[in-house]
Amino acid sequence: ARRERHERGTALFRQGDPAESLFLIKGGRVKLTKVTADGAEMILDLRQAGDVLGENLMAEESAYPVSAACLEDTLTCGFTRATLQDLVLRHPRIGLQLIRNMSARIVWLTDQVGSLGLTSVEERLYRVLQNVARQHGRPDPAGLALAFPLTHEELGFLVGAHRVTVTRALAALKESGRLLQQGRTLVVPPEAA
Is pTM beyond 0.70 here? Predict the structure, then answer.
């Protein structure tokens, strides 16, 4: 694997670039975004250490359908199609682990699509924050603290709502005790996380 360090803000790849590498994140966090036909940028996912990016590498003649940018300093191991195929043929357990990771991603995506069907923005936001806390949170005496700040605009992209609507939904979640605010950090209480 080709080990690389990437500074915060660096793009690992951009939407439309030829899919030439698959990346294993060894440390740091990466934001996946997609630009729509009308030019709007949507945040689709956040990935962390242990996650894989660029899974569509194995599709013949493909391009990356999204962009991947580092949210913090990030360490990756990159594989070209040829090196990945060789590695999987020599070590089938690695291929099985890749299949497990992709299956888990499919389950996550199915849950995300299901939560979009919820009519309440408050409930969609709550589910997104639960998922982000489970995947990226750090233990806190009050629950799971989000390890990095998310703007109201970024949360809006994650739940499919306007920033103002997200601000109102956050206020309602805090008022009901389903979400706690500690300075600039959001905390999901243990019973919810």
Answer: no
